[in-house]
């Protein structure tokens, strides 16, 4: 593994860590919104979609990291 590849892996790990933190916060926000239903029900779909999108992005990055670490 070259130094550039190692740097890219470390950058990806940092990005995953930050995104994971944001995803956790969004999950809590969605939970709080669900607990307060029917209040603010109009925002439920937007918050749910944003939460889904960030977890999908997180999953994609984790798969990318796994491939990079395996040298593929």
If you had to describe this structure to a student in words, what would you say it looks like?
- This protein is an all-alpha fold and 72 residues long.
- 82% of the residues lie in helices and 0% in strands.
- The chain has helices at residues 3-35, 44-69.
- Helix 1 (3-35) runs antiparallel to helix 2 (44-69).
- The longest helix has 33 residues, at 3-35.
Task: Give a topology summary.
Elements: H1 3-35, H2 44-69
Helix pairs in contact: 1-2
Please name the defining characteristics of this protein.
72 residues; elongated; Helix Hairpins; 0% strand; mainly alpha; single chain; 2 helices
Ranges where pLDDT stays below 50 over 5 or more residues in a row are none
Assign the CATH superfamily.
Helix hairpin bin
Termini separation comes to 11 Å
What overall geometry do the principal axes of the alpha carbons give? elongated
How many independent structural domains? 1
CATH top level?
Answer: Mainly Alpha
The overall pLDDT average reads: 93
């Amino acid at each position: 593994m070259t130094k550039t590849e190692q740097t890219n892996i470390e950058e990806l790990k940092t990005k995953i860590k930050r995104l994971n933190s944001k995803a956790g916060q969004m999950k809590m926000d969605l939970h709080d919104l669900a607990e307060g239903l029917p209040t603010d029900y109009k925002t439920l779909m937007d918050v749910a979609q944003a939460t889904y999108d960030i977890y999908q992005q997180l999953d994609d990055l984790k798969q990318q990291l796994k491939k990079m670490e395996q040298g593929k």
